[in-house]
Amino acid sequence: MRAPAAGGNALRLYEDRLPDETDGTDENGKRSAAEPFHGDRFGSWAGKFWTVCWWLMLASSVGLGLWRWKENLRWEGARWSQPDSGVDGSLQAHLGIEHGAAALRKEIDSLPTNAPLLVVGPGNDWTLSEVYFLISYLGWPRPVWSVGVMPGGQKARYDNPPPTGFKPVKIFVYKMSPPPGVAAHALSKDLAVVQVTK
Predict the structure, then answer these.
(1) Where are the beta strands (DSSP E) in the chain?
(2) In a designed cystine with 150, which of 21, 88, 123, 157 is the match (CB 3.0 to 4.6 A)?
(3) Is the pLDDT of residue 37 over 50?
(4) What's this model's pTM, rounded to 2 decimal places?
């Protein structure tokens, strides 16, 4: 406790009644039980021990997590390293054709660049649009159209019908059977190609 200040100033009297700032020891240098002195917890031997243990647990958790992640990760970079890898993957998923881009290009590349193509399939199946886009991509710059077939004259949800007077050179029939009596060959169980006679 500081000695009372002379002068009678109320603020100074209040300040004089504040306890001295100490490190928790009394006038004899003994530590007060009511106010334990924590000190530098990282400076003591026990503090350093627990800090090292905490970092070791953190490092082992991260290491174990990375090891498990590596075990479950499959590198498929080689699968997508070729120019047609994405198209091949989509054609494999929808049509079950290995190296589908090359198979379809074989059907298309011999045609003139202005030869019109047609894709026919179920008009309520969204994958018709996907197959149509893939054939359009592989057939470029040839114009490609799509017709969705629906029962009872219903409007197709997925198609891009050709203009009036359109005469395709080849028809790609998706998830349907080609009409009887036409020259057709199957590329897969879901896709057949009809060569239209001139």
Answers:
(1) 117-122, 144-149, 170-174, 184-188, 191-195
(2) 123
(3) no
(4) 0.58
